[in-house]
């Protein structure tokens, strides 16, 4: 049906969906911060699990819809390209946090643990694409391993939070995760979660609209699915992460900002399992191109840089941003330029 619409109308749909994503992302940041305080689970854990997963819903819909349409590259590139873009968003957050390097101030062991988990999950597509093209219930066996590893990682993350064997050194620039003072009109945890769910549903609808619009634009303009997935649909569906990151930094919820990005990226690897399940022509990993695996490598490199920044915790760098933020900008910018040239 959308394929029959005019070009300006399709663009209008994408713009409207983008506005919905921006609004929902901004509102969800406040709700997630309040839920973290109400439940006592902390900003890093709520950011990494609840906020990270919810802001990724629109991207999930894009990958699944693309896979069902037989567009393997678009489904894969949307997932992995989103991880690269969202990691770069943390460098943007570092730019606007003027007191110190963001990775230094937001010291939190659970964020480092989830970064390691993300690197493990990002290695799976390389393993899958270099092994024989096997399928089990219509999917590559390693696709089935992704949610298992993710689920174990969530349990381990909670354990690490409650029983830390490593703790960051606290300095005068470290920002602690302390609950905000509640006013007389403070809402219950149940009402906060319900409002959060409504925002998440709206994000899903917007994601579906963007998936359909992106596929049509890819056909009409003649751009490659990898280019559309990595640099168009991935960036648009990643806008909630940009909004929530910047809003969380402005609120001083630094662990929520960092945890939301890393947790959202970790959740995004589940897109691969969902896309492989939706792709009915065999293994998703054997239907993608080298350009798609290039973005997988970019996401892995950027995650490694972020983790090194979290470990080093440079206090102040150039313009009060750390080396990791400069490196993230350079790597992502170079990847975008290369993909644009190659098409």
Automatic annotation (TrEMBL):
It is found in: Membrane. The chain crosses the membrane at residues 6-24, 45-68, 74-97, 109-128, 134-156, 192-210, 230-249, 256-274, 294-312, 321-342. It is a multi-pass membrane protein. Pfam families: Na_Ca_ex. GO terms for biological process: intracellular calcium ion homeostasis. Signal peptide: none annotated. The keyword Transferase does not apply. It comes from the Bacteria. GO terms for molecular function: calcium channel activity; calcium, potassium:sodium antiporter activity. Residues 11-147, 193-339 form the Sodium/calcium exchanger membrane region domain. Gene3D superfamilies: NCX, central ion-binding region. GO terms for cellular component: plasma membrane. This is Cation:H+ antiporter. It comes from Cohaesibacter marisflavi.
């Amino acid at each position: 049906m959308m394929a029959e619409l005019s070009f300006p109308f399709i663009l209008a749909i994408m713009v409207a969906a983008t506005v919905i994503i921006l609004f929902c992302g901004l509102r969800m940041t406040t709700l997630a911060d309040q839920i973290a305080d109400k439940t006592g689970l902390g900003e890093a854990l709520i950011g990494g699990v609840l906020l990270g997963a919810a802001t990724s819903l629109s991207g999930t819909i894009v990958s699944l819809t693309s896979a069902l349409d037989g567009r393997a590259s678009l489904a894969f590139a949307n997932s992995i390209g989103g991880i690269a873009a969202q990691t770069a968003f943390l460098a943007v957050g570092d730019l606007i946090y003027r007191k110190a390097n963001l990775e230094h101030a937001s010291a939190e062991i659970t964020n480092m643990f989830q970064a390691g988990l993300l690197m493990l999950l990002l290695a799976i597509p390389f393993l899958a694409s270099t092994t024989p093209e096997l399928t089990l219930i219509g999917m590559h066996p390693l696709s089935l391993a992704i949610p298992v590893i993710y689920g174990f990682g969530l349990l381990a993350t909670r354990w690490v939070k409650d029983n830390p064997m490593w703790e960051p050194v606290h300095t005068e620039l470290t920002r602690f995760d302390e609950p905000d003072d509640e006013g007389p009109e403070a809402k219950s945890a149940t009402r906060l979660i319900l409002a959060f769910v409504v925002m998440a549903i709206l994000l899903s609808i917007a994601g579906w609209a963007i998936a359909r619009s992106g596929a049509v634009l890819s056909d009409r303009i003649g751009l490659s699915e990898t280019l559309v997935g990595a640099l168009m649909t991935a960036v648009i569906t990643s806008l909630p992460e940009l909004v929530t990151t910047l809003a969380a930094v402005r609120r001083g919820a630094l662990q929520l900002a960092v945890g939301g990005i890393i947790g959202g990226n970790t959740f995004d690897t589940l897109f691969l399992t969902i896309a492989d399940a939706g792709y009915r022509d065999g293994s998703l990993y054997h239907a993608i191109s080298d350009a798609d695996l290039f973005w997988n490598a970019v996401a892995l490199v950027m995650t490694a840089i972020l983790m090194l920044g979290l470990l080093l915790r440079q206090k102040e760098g150039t313009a009060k941003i750390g080396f990791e933020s400069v490196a993230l900008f350079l790597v992502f910018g170079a990847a975008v330029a290369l993909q644009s040239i190659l098409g």
